[in-house]
Amino acid sequence: MVAVLSPYTNAEAAKPSKTFVNDDDRFMALRDAAMHDDAAQADEYAAALAQYTIPSYVDYYRLKTRLRTASADEFKNFLSKYEGSAIADRLRNDWLLLLGQRGEWDTFDVQYPQFVVADDTQVKCYALLSKATKQQKVATEARALLTAPRDYGAGCYSLVTYLSASGQFSDNDLWAQMRIAAENGAQPLAQRLARLLEIGDKRITQVFEKPALMLKKAPESDKVAHELYILALGRQAKADPQDAADTLSRFSAKFSESERAQAWAQIALQAALKLQPEALGYWQRTEGATLSLEGYQWRVRTALREGDWKLVKSAIAAMPASLKSDPAWVYWLARALMTEGKTEEAQVMFASIGDQLQFYGQLALEERGQKIGVPLTIKPVTAEELAPIQANPGLQRALKFYAMNLRFEGTREWNWELRKMSERQHIAAAEFARQNELLDRMVNTSDRTKGELDFSQRYPTPFNDSMYKTTQALGLDMAWVYGLIRQESRFVMKAKSNVGASGLMQIMPATARYVAKKIGLGNFLPEQVNDVDTNIALGTNYLNMVLTDLGGSQALASAAYNAGPGRPRAWRASLTRPVEGAIFAETIPFSETRGYVKNVLSNATYYAALFEKKPQSLKARLGVVVPKGMSATDSDLP
Prior knowledge:
This protein has 638 residues and is mainly α. The chain folds into four domains: 19-114; 121-303; 383-453, Methyltransferase, Methionine Synthase (B12-binding Domains), Chain A, domain 1; 464-636, Lysozyme (Orthogonal Bundle), CATH 1.10.530. It is built from 39 helices and two strands. Residues 1-16 and 632-638 have low confidence and may be disordered.
């Protein structure tokens, strides 16, 4: 047989032609092309979308594929054409990153003040770098900004390099950054810093990957060797805090007083994260050490777990102002003052956060002798108030994106419009979200108000009949279940997490199969997890299982629902004494689970107030968490 030569290349022949049902399909293809920097495809799809209902995004995705080759005029024309829009601000973010990378500071300085969202750490680093190139002093601002290596990128690396070269950052600043890198496992950052300190990559690799090898012998006598040894102690403590502590004790005389404090701080943080009671003793040796933001907070958390109120007070006092003003630390400092009999001073602090509608605001309210209730119902939204909200182009774009399951774009548009609104307009926008069955937007929008409060928006109760029947049958607290759903999915029925959890109660596939089998749900299929009634049945039954397993503690069971039942069992087992539930919640070592438990139980307290029509106690809901095998007595209660 004679082969017939095709007029197309093999690559072209292998590439299937796309067919589109409508312009929405074509727009999705344009977006995908932009995500893959495919300029040719993006141009083709965009040309066919000349009459699309959201032209700004068509133009944005087309331009996005060639950001590096686009002229300044193209950026300016887009920004002028779509001035004041969310997508224009997004493009300005993209352009500022390019301008910073290229060092085009004149244009950067014109555009940066117009960047509204201003939430990009790299752009902030470039802004400081621009100032520094003009001989402005920015070291203090840089130290406050450079705390989370995962957000650094090229902009922050360039800032650190410039500040070091220009003398604004000393070697001590670089070593402080090195400790942050080691604490966060950010080896690439550590290697960049090492070059500035003229340290070879091999030494950094050993610190990160083989710290135990370095610690087998005493440190050498020079400053660099001491600093690297301290880093290695922190890295070894991630695996075995006791071994690191023994090593430091053995060679303690080799270090100066300030070096010893710094070394103990590295070990103390890792021991604290493992909830080891020995961490308290380590922290007590850190006087004068420079801590990371996590270090400052875990020193307090360790003191709370071990009941050392004197250290709670001094550790909060030593925090930087950015942390000290957080409601959590305002509350715990006030509690520490109460143990000293400084009731009047403590009550002033409780009052300063008692009007905040969150976990620590609720606890502060109870410390002032009040219970947690529901505010008076506000005046309903009128048709006249709703009309401009319904006609708002940005919110209409958001609805369009949500209908296409483009939640990221939809939320960007929605939140952009909220920036321009009064509290009353927020309430109207939340009502608009309710009318369009966007309960997550309703909750999040209504949550922003401080003066006008509508708890029917903030704490909705969809699927009430199904929820009531299921929770009644199990003897489960319905307020708690609603509190958990509000945190898990914000009532998005088809919500799916990045780890595969699905539906209202965000159930993992393996958990769904396990519970379905346990409760005798015959012929269960994975896709059934998004059916509302099935999701509620699976989620509530699983919640009831972990609640029973963990002794009826909602704090422990909420943690188990988020992190798996094994972890809260281990966290409880590490306790040396019964602790109030608020202390247990604050000292959960996973930041996501820590916030989750606090939010779930705060939500549940408000739901209970709504259902029972009377004030509630969050402290009673939190209860006391008792180590397995121990019993709580009245003396254990605060």
